Give the backbone structure.
Amino acid sequence: MTVNAMRVSAGDALAVLLAGWEAQKAGGMRASFMLHGRPGVGKTQVVEELARRIGAQFFDLRLTTIEPQDLRGLPYYDHAAKRTLWYRPEDLPDDSAHPSVLFLDELTAASPTLQPTVYGLLQERRVGRHRLPDSVFLVAAGNTVEDGAIAYEMGTGLSDRLVHLLVEASADDWLRNFAVPKGMHPAVIAFIRTRPDLLETTEEALSRGDMIAATPRSWERVSQIAHSVPDRRIRNMMVAGTVGEAIGADFALVADEIAATVRVDEMIVARGAERVALYPGTLHGLAALVYGLVGTLDADTAPEVIAILADIRRLDQLRPGDGFGALPLTELCTHGFELLIAKGLDAGLEQAFLDHPAYADYAAERRAAGLG
């Protein structure tokens, strides 16, 4: 059965869930949401970020690992009332004073015997006599049969109880809203920026009969490997086992280039011609430098980070003859400042930009070009 919902990025899915929470909090709407998408596309991260944004306790129920009685709770006999009652399970939030997000993950892979119990949660917000407080926001997630994952077709009785979103990987969205804010390794960010087609390759892997595919989740694991494993040979084997041998080999070339040419810490302490000489001479290297600068930004490094980023747009003048004229320097600089300003505003560093002459020159050039 086709999921005929709108296809959205992870960032858009988060925006929808935030709007749903605000509507529920205001009393105008109370709906349960369902995130469909291929394995590793970022569904869980979206819901975790939702919980973080609204300050909610996060309850993660993996429906493939529980039975109906796990949600109903433990029975006991009330001798005075002469009836059986049920202890509430700890997996169901019961705090009415503070927000909670109840995440029903792997819904489409759950046993059909569990579905009637889940119906009660999603439609009536209760299991047996256990009711969810109004402060609980409900989100489910799952894969489809077409994704190559274990999944059952969702019946209309369950489907009708949900607001559906079909989450797809978007390189620009992932870089801006997940990879950069999470401080992922600059080599991963630079690689996906120049090869956005390799962020998610599940469909291609299935068509070839390959077991391993690249996904946003697997690239997060590559970032952890790049940060944590210093031995190049071991690191390359681990990356190949995470995103596949062919993609891993392409990534290794970029990672080696970046490791050899991108030296953010040295550039921050260098001055003048010494700093100019440290700029990497390739697109991969400059992209990694931009993301490295964003990751380094804080109150102490802000003046140097802003100056280094601003000079990227003038590298063809600062180092004539080194081939910078063929690179999109202005685009890199603008993209870098968009990310840098967003992080700076979150950190309360707006004055550092307003007071910096290099940023003032950059902003003046933008205004003169009619770019705001």
